[in-house]
């Protein structure tokens, strides 16, 4: 991609927007950075771009910038369907994201992971498996470090570039082609941004658009939407399926092991006896990671070491304390209904569930069955509190309690629990009604639990 002397508009001054702007200026582009937020709320981002020849348009957007642009680069949080982009669309100006921009400047193999749930855990696990196998690895993307930072030379050269990709990032891809693409699952999420679930699924499936027959597509054969999309848009890459049923090419998942098959013949076996990752959903994540890493030259020993030693990530089924025989588990990253289903399936003992936050147009009635099976008492909080109560009334064994803050929710959950129970924060909602992000929400939960002890 030729960008020298091009007029480029970068929309959004989040982490990826700042990194993209820096990259473009260093390669001779004439860059305008625009954000609807006012300058006084963007001081850190502005300071990060200090000394660079950049024009700022803050506190709103100027249609003229998009009319004059040769290229528009969107941050992931900026929907690609916004009316302000119409001048660029009409002119035929490419509108891409930081992921697409970065990939055009990366020669190393890219291993990309997407899915509604499990992306970050799987991406980190892949990094450990490859690193344990002696590979030099960069891990980034939606997980935190923008891919453009790697393309800009901010990190050492890698043998494999591992990138977590969100639907928002995939929306603005054109030529993005991962050598290995992983699809973990597709379930209801982000319906506050997409007009239909089908539109969201199509967005996810873009990860396979440019793959070639020699590339690898790792897919969850147990996920109904993934199975339907395989029939609708068959990937041209070599398909490897993971499932709890027999497979010809891919991985079969058992409670205590993962068997790998190539052409119907077993070619590998990985023990799950020592894994610290809980639940059937994490067995799926491990199977996907095994297949992806084997395709990139990981060793059996390196993969097994990662399975044995990887302890998971913060805010994902993270035990944060035990008080009076009650276990407290932080699953703040569970921001949709399917993630809560997966979390509840991990527990054999009674659960006091804390749910709520900002609904992303999720259907809470989808939790009726798992709540009946696993939840003793449900504590509802946040903007979605009334919706949760309406959807799940009568389903928890001992009913629903309402709370107006995290402190009140934890205290009421503890009061409802007895020794041997688990208090689980698994919100099924975004955090933005009460917190800046899911991490802050989980940290607050942990702080309150520590005070209880």
TrEMBL record:
Identify the residues that bind ATP.
115-121
Instruction: Note the superkingdom of the native organism.
Output: Bacteria
Any single GO molecular-function term of the entry would be: UDP-N-acetylmuramoylalanine-D-glutamate ligase activity
Signal peptide boundaries: none
Chief place where the protein resides? cytoplasm
**GO biological-process terms attached to the record:** cell division; cell wall organization; peptidoglycan biosynthetic process; regulation of cell shape
Which InterPro entries has this protein been placed in?
A: Folylpolyglutamate_synth_CS, Mur-like_cat_sf, Mur_ligase_C, Mur_ligase_C_dom_sf, Mur_ligase_cen, MurD
The kind of enzyme this is, by top-level EC class, is ligase
Q: Which cell locations does it reside in?
A: Cytoplasm
GO CC terms for this protein?
cytoplasm
> Which keywords annotate this record?
ATP-binding, Cell cycle, Cell division, Cell shape, Cell wall biogenesis/degradation, Cytoplasm, Ligase, Nucleotide-binding, Peptidoglycan synthesis
Q: What pathway or pathways are given for this protein in its record?
A: Cell wall biogenesis; peptidoglycan biosynthesis
Gene3D superfamilies (alphabetical): Mur ligase, C-terminal domain, Mur-like, catalytic domain, NAD(P)-binding Rossmann-like Domain
**Pfam families on file:** Mur_ligase_C, Mur_ligase_M, MurD-like_N
Q: Which reaction does it catalyse?
A: UDP-N-acetyl-alpha-D-muramoyl-L-alanine + D-glutamate + ATP = UDP-N-acetyl-alpha-D-muramoyl-L-alanyl-D-glutamate + ADP + phosphate + H(+)
Q: EC number(s) per UniProt?
A: 6.3.2.9
Q: Where is the Mur ligase C-terminal domain?
A: 315-429
Q: Which family does it belong to?
A: Belongs to the MurCDEF family.
Q: What does this protein do?
A: Cell wall formation. Catalyzes the addition of glutamate to the nucleotide precursor UDP-N-acetylmuramoyl-L-alanine (UMA).
- What name does this protein carry? UDP-N-acetylmuramoylalanine--D-glutamate ligase
Record the organism. Answer: Desulfosarcina alkanivorans
